[in-house]
Structures are given as C-alpha cells and as structure tokens.
Task: structure prediction
Amino acid sequence: MKYKLAIFDLDGTVLDTLQDLANAVNRALEMHGYPQHSVEDVRVFVGNGVAKLIRRAVPAGTSDAECESVLADFKASYRQHINDCTKPYAGIPEMLRALKDAGVKVGINSNKFDAALQSLCHIHFEGLYDYAVGESEITPKKPDPTAARRIMEAMQVSPEETIYIGDSDVDMQTGRNAGTATAWVSWGFRRRDEMTGCEVPVSFDTPEALRDWLLSE
Result:
C-alpha cells in the first residue's frame, strides 16, 4: 500500500452534505428577511468554515453583528436538521472498509464545527475511521495544518506516510501545509475547472479508483 494514513475531508469528499447546508442557510436568511440561495450558490459558498459561508450568503454590506446573528440561527437550524438529507457518496463506506481491512489508518478532517463533525462521523462511519477533527477554539480552520498534524500524531504516522484527500483547493493547501501527499476527488463540491491555480498532483473520479490506487504497491 502507498500510505499508512489517509486523511479525508468530510463535506464533498466522503459525505454529501450540500442539501442540508443549503436548507439551513436559507432558513437563517429567511428569519432575517434576506433573499435565499440555490443549492448551486451554496456549493460555491462552502469550504472555508461556516462563518465564511454565512458572510458569502448574506447581502453585501451586512454588518458583522448581523452576520453573527445569522450565523447563530444557521447553527441552531443545522444542529436540528444535520442529517435530513446527508448521506455518504456511493462507494465511500466500502472504500473506507477496504482501507481499514488493509491496515490503513483513516482520519477525517473538516472545517465543519467539531461537534457536528463528530456527530456525522458517528452516524455514517462508525467503525470505518480512527480519528476525526473539526474546527474548534483550539483547532483553526483549514488550510491551517493543525488538525492534520493532530491526526498524524494520534496515529503515530509521519507526514511522509500520509496522504490528504479532498475535493477543494483548501484541502490541497492543507495537505501541502502539513507536509503530506495530496489527492483530489472530482465528485464533490468543486469542479475541475474551479481548481485553477491549485496544483492537483493526482485525481480520481470514483471511490473505487481511489481505493485501488491507495492499496496498490
């Protein structure tokens, strides 16, 4: 196998969370009388944490205080509806099981706030991963490499033995900042033509292709 540890992004890489995120964004916007957004709009907004998501979703010129209020309403709504439509991408549970069975450690890292990350990992991937880290007061958002380094330290694996896998430029930057190899997947929230200006050393269109590559000699 190529690596001892595979760290996966969550949203857009192993879980399709987009509809639930869009619904929670629009509920919060509606509460404040703001225009709502399509799922496609929200797809473009995500990737840098929920504070940035809300800042991108509210009208231009919205005050910081008002953004904080909308963010609080978003978080409250998302907590209640975090798993209404969310599901793993087809083939992801089987891929994670194959990695675990082969002895590859599996980490999950997200800019989603940590409590939400832990809940979703427990619901969808119990027994299929080793360590998960989300955003918190002690863990900065990606592309800061703190969370990736925490996962490597917990798994006692070096950066040279690790690959960071995600669907966005933020994920590629995170892996580089952590000193790991990186791989991009095409089924998530970022399209290939949206990855301009970001080096993508290796890419995959299906979880099965990614699995086979990771487990090859």
